[in-house]
Amino acid sequence: MILPSTSKVNKNGHLEIGGCDLALLAANYGTPLFVYDEDTLRGQCRLYKNSFLGLKSNSEVIYASKAFVCLGICQLVNNEGLSIDVSSAGELYTALEAGFSPDKIYFHGNNKTDEELALAVDNKVGIIVVDSFMELSRLKELLNNRGVKQKIYLRITPGIKASTHEYIQTGQEDSKFGFSLGGAATLAVKKALENNCFNLSGLHAHIGSQIFATRSFSKAVEVIMEFAKTLNEKTGFVMRELDIGGGLGIKYHADDEPSTVEEYAKVISKAVTKQANRLNLQEPKILVEPGRSIVGTAGVTLYTVGTIKEIKGIRTFVSVDGGMSDNLRPMLYDAKYEALLANKAKAKASQKVTIAGKHCESGDVLIKDAMLPEVEMGDILCTPATGAYGYVMANNYNRQRKPAVVIVKDGQVKELIARESLEDLIRLDKRLKA
Ligand SMILES: Cc1ncc(COP(=O)(O)O)c(C=O)c1O
Fold first, then answer.
1. CA of 37 to the centre of ligand 1 (A)
2. Which atom of ligand 1 is least distant from the CA of 289?
3. How many CA atoms lie within 13 Å of 70's alpha carbon, on the beta-carbon side?
4. pLDDT 10s digit of each residue in the chain, 434 long?
5. Which of 209, 294, 391 to mutate to test the pocket of ligand 1 (most atoms within 8 A of CB)?
6. Using CA atoms, how far apart are residues 176 and 179, in angstroms rounded to an integer?
7. Measured between alpha carbons, how far is 403 from 24 in angstroms, rounded to an integer?
8. Across-strand partners of 211?
9. Is the C-beta atom of 83 inside 6 A of ligand 1?
10. Catalytic residue selected from 74, 197, 360, 382
11. Ligand 1 in contact with 209 (CB < 6 A)?
12. Is-contact 242 272, C-beta < 8 A?
């Protein structure tokens, strides 16, 4: 389940995804290469939509584009009927260029610039998720100058800190995101209600990412709906929409046990109904914003093995032609991955090695203890579950060219993003005049 749903080993002993031999893809498109499986990706979009709509007709699934964004992915997600969450002018522009109807765009961010707010308002995005008092007043001014009204949510921090397996309720105010429940959120709602330029239709919260314990989500629903009840009594505000953010975890390892999308949908839907009944509130529309669990498992990365350095009694370094320039997660937050050799997919994993990148940092290590078959220079190393927060964090450290990204289905390959060229790397550089 770490690999995309169409994965299989072909008669040559090579790993195949979407009917395409990964070793051949590496030969044709070069490495590092991101490969997405269209069936897995579309399957996740449908699973999310069907799971929520099957339980609540008044629900909406919004793809969190920060997980992986480019024109092709936006087109595909749009085609599957999902809405989209963006958190910068760049993501917004990409979604619009890909043909997303503006009313299906949700605009997030704790520090939206004036330019970004104007871009969102002028393009008539569906919802702006307001994150701070300063943003509320800047947006008010912008809307009044234009004489237009904007639908908004307020982002609140419900004080639920979710780790993979559990949550803790901290009541913490120490977050750069949103309004805390300790008074700030109530004041923000009052301010939003006082101004005609805002149509405050709901609240938003995002409690974290790579969460396995669905209890964290039901607890967040409980806290937010209790808050909505208090707000209703104090201000008359009716929370018609509740956007509970993203965060459902995926499997990076054989022993990871994330919840299924169906279970996640059930827990959230049940919690909303239960709390609405308990608090005597109108049931809000439910919105969720999955990113990782839409694209994470659909994508793998291919590398070519280069230098192999064995340090007797210590470790063997297997260096690949990418690293921290295409997958920052191991360096950013110690994320763990598994690896296999795509051209030796039937061979038994017999040795423990350290997979290192090619960059000038000792910390440029993708996997500390990977189990691989006998490995040689030229082998095609595949790291599964790299579809989310991989390419989008790619960078040009050491002037490495950003990889190409392809999507595969039924033996057909389509390029989503071309590999950067050497010319691309100096395109924006200015030469000094002699
Ligand atoms: C506001 C918001 N929504 C949705 C997401 C998507 O989270 P995930 O990829 O864990 O589903 C994030 C991720 O950071 C987020 O900040």
1. 21
2. 4
3. 20
4. 799 999 999 999 999 999 999 999 999 999 999 999 999 999 999 999 999 999 999 999 999 999 999 999 999 999 999 999 999 999 999 999 999 999 999 999 999 999 999 999 999 999 999 999 999 999 999 999 999 999 999 999 998 888 777 776 665 677 889 999 879 999 999 999 999 999 999 999 999 999 999 999 999 999 999 999 999 999 999 999 999 999 999 999 988 999 999 999 999 999 999 999 999 999 999 999 999 999 999 999 999 999 999 999 999 999 999 999 999 999 998 999 999 999 999 999 999 999 999 999 999 999 999 999 999 999 999 999 999 999 999 999 999 999 999 999 999 999 999 999 999 999 999 999 98
5. 209
6. 9
7. 16
8. 248
9. no
10. 360
11. yes
12. yes
Q: Establish whether residue 32 lines the binding site of ligand 1, counting it when its CB lies within 6 angstroms of any ligand atom.
A: no
Are 31 and 304 in contact, with CB atoms under 8 Å apart?
yes
Report the separation in Å between the CA atom of 246 and the middle of ligand 1, taken as the mean of its atom positions.
5
Confirm or reject: Cβ of 292 under 6 Å from ligand 1. yes
Q: Are 370 and 382 in contact (CB under 8 A)?
A: no
Ligand 1 in reach of 289 Cβ (< 6 A):
yes
* Ligand 1 mean position, distance from CA 220 (Å): 15
- Bridge partners (DSSP) of residue 107 are 86, 128
Q: Is 335 exposed, middle or buried (0-12, 13-18, 19+ CB in 10 A)?
A: middle
Is 360 in the active site?
yes
User: Pocket of ligand 1, candidates 156, 203, 206, 212: which has the most ligand atoms within 8 Å of its Cβ, to mutate?
Assistant: 206
Domains along the sequence of the chain with CATH: 8-30+298-426 (2.40.37.10), 38-295 (3.20.20.10)
CA of 64 to the centre of ligand 1 (A): 6
Handedness of CA 322, 327, 331, 336 (dihedral sign): negative
